[in-house]
Amino acid sequence: MRSLTKATHQDTREHNVRLVMRALAGLGPISRADIARRTDLTRTTVSDVVNQLAAAGLVQEIGRGPSSGGKAPILLQIPRDARQLIGVHVGEGQVRGAIVNLAGEISHREQLTLEGRDGDDALHRLEELLDRLLVVAAQPPLGVGIGTSGLVDTNAGTVRWAVHLDWRDLHLAARLRSRTGLPVYVANDSQAAALAEWTFGGHTPARGMIVIKVGNGIGAGIIIDDRLYQGDSSGAGEIGHVSVVANDVRCRCGRTGCLETIASLRAVDGRIQAVAHGPDERPEPSSNDPGALERSLDAYLTGDEQVRGIVIEAGRALGRMVGYLVGALDIHDIVLIGSMTAFGDPWLDAVRNEAQRSALPLLFDSTRIGLGRLGSDIVELGAAALLMTAELGLSQAA
Ligand SMILES: [Zn+2]
Q1: CA 161, CA 214: separation in Å to the nearest integer?
Q2: What percent of the chain stands above pLDDT 70?
């Protein structure tokens, strides 16, 4: 058993490597001095970590940057194509995969539909997708990262429960590792999305971030002290099924009053349809209706006050939850992603105003609530980031 002191030193080294890798990935080309400034590490620590990374071929000097008076600083960057990463998103209705470099750039994509497949059939589809990506990869990739819906124990590499895939206690990482011979990491899709924004989003380094995905479902990924926080049973960030309103709308989890019954796209679409068609004639919204966003946006853009009110109410309910999270975790960077962000500033303002109302003013003053910077590949990128930080960040520190 490692002594506490040794474990702490090891953790600190790993943490430092991750901080420097992240500064290089998100902000590079960058000088050692700027890395130190942006990460709050000492110059000596930054130099030590850079030397470690250089020995592994993971950082390169690319010449001198502009001088600010003294000697011009040497700029560093990650050699973008030094390693290839495979990032996969197991979503509702399809599996999508990408070959990603160390800077988060995608060179190739593959996609297969699930068409209602679940259980072993869905798993075979995922394996087929991986086979295709491995054929395309120019060299053996560093490994495979997977983001999937459901409760995922990332340390164990196990999908504990994914409802629409009918996966329960599936040892996904072990199974794919023995098939591909590569390291495999698995995370929940919202948590993977959080890692993508954290690693490749170019946000100024801080100690933590909450990324909330607001689409047909609502889930958050929480980064604390530069690590994905999963909680005691892997469910950290499952905010969609926290009861926040006194309505009698039945949620897909079987209960009423969940955040998803008011703030999700599915809920907003359902309520807008009820305005348009009357409550009895409206079609029952399905959880994976591709037309829901366009239909809701069209109705919203007509300027109808009732429709506008539905969207604002959705934003407020989410904002209340953001306020609770800021109060509970004291994390000041909140990033919103997902289809509901298409409603733009009025929705975002409603989120901000309500968050401010429900959080302690002292905590909220320095809180930034903004939109994500990555596109529709975000889960694949996050799965790749999970792989990258786990394999490179940790192995270099040993
Ligand atoms: Zn629910």
Answers
A1: 20
A2: 93
